[in-house]
Amino acid sequence: MRGSGNPPRPAEGTFYLEENIVVRLNLPDALRKGVGLSLVGAALVVIPAAPIKAAQPDPSVVEQMRNEAAGDVAVTTSPATGKVGFISATEDLAPSERSGATRSGAQAKAGDYVDKYARAFGTTAAQLGNPVTTATPAGHTVDFTQSYQGVPVFGSKLRAQVDTDGDLVSVSG
């Protein structure tokens, strides 16, 4: 085929720098693809992301919770959701409600409070299942589990603490 004027077709990865100088890159396909993906990944890193703004808590509900309570009140909200994650009082979160000194009283007092302020915790009263009340040396613990359309929501427990005097001292969840 010499002298036909058509040089042989170069193999993949072969480059001609000059007529008599041949450079052959013998890179495996995986490496060539990896280099390409690295360039795409580097381009994605350069793209600026929109800042994420934290949700703001509803100050009117939190203020109502503070005003209703007796004693000093501490409230912690989630920076991501703006919902109440913990509230406690040195005396009672619901002093005008019934006494929670008994098991049924603790369950009723915690249930009334959680039903009233469910939206502050990121749920609704309808989404909270039947409470489970446990006696403790400090009083009673009342647990509520959230469900959505009949399916339990993972990690959605609300826990209320009622002390031996029947005061609702904290709710977390």
From TrEMBL:
Q: Which InterPro entries match?
A: FTP_domain
Q: Name one Pfam family in it.
A: FTP
Keyword Protease present in the record's keywords: the answer is: yes
| Top-level taxon of the source organism | Bacteria
Q: Locate the FTP domain: which residues?
A: 141-173
Kindly state which keywords UniProt assigns to this record, in alphabetical order: Hydrolase, Metal-binding, Metalloprotease, Protease, Zinc
Identification of the protein by name: FTP domain-containing protein
- Organism (species): Nocardioides daeguensis
